[in-house]
Amino acid sequence: MKVSPKYFNLTENQEKQQKMNTKIYQKTKPNLLNNSKNEHMPKKRCFNQYCQKGGQVDLIIVQDKSFKKNGNSKEKIYYCSKCFERYRGNQYCQYCKQIYFDTNEVDGEEWIQCDECDFWLHKQCEAQHGIENIDEFIKRKEKYECPRCRLRSKKNEVIKYMIQQCIYFFQYFVNYHYLQ
């Protein structure tokens, strides 16, 4: 687990993931992106408050179901093309969707890195929405998993449990009929 207030260098896994995301995006053109040539993009500010472009620029619309702005999970998020590339490369806090860059652009917050997928999140966002005692968690140097990895782990546990139950009932069924 890494905690970093300043610099973000892409790890090898993140670079591979970013390249893979770009290839997948080019092949499938997911519904997250509203970028048809005929459609005029709205003039709004980039959602990334630390965007270097500033002002009004042509934006890409993202509808992230996990993001709830003003309590509405269907609300759209607007990013400039540079910030969208970072979003697509999973370089944002999963909770507040703040984009981070791999240079010394800093938002003044501490970030924490997932030990499973190398994803970075605001430490404060994790404390607010996820692990409340994150500082103690860090001090104990436990393995940190981001919300996505925690969800994946829970799903795997449920699947394992279901398989065990199926095996148990199958054995019971076979033994019951075999003894009859």
TrEMBL record:
Keywords: Acyltransferase, Metal-binding, Transferase, Zinc, Zinc-finger. Its EC number is 2.3.1.48. It comes from the Eukaryota. GO terms for molecular function: protein-lysine-acetyltransferase activity; zinc ion binding. The keyword Acyltransferase applies. Gene3D superfamilies: Zinc/RING finger domain, C3HC4 (zinc finger) (3.30.40.10). InterPro entries: Zinc_finger_PHD-type_CS, Znf_FYVE_PHD, Znf_PHD, Znf_PHD-finger, Znf_RING/FYVE/PHD. Residues 90-152 form the PHD-type domain. This is PHD-finger family protein, putative. It comes from Ichthyophthirius multifiliis (White spot disease agent).
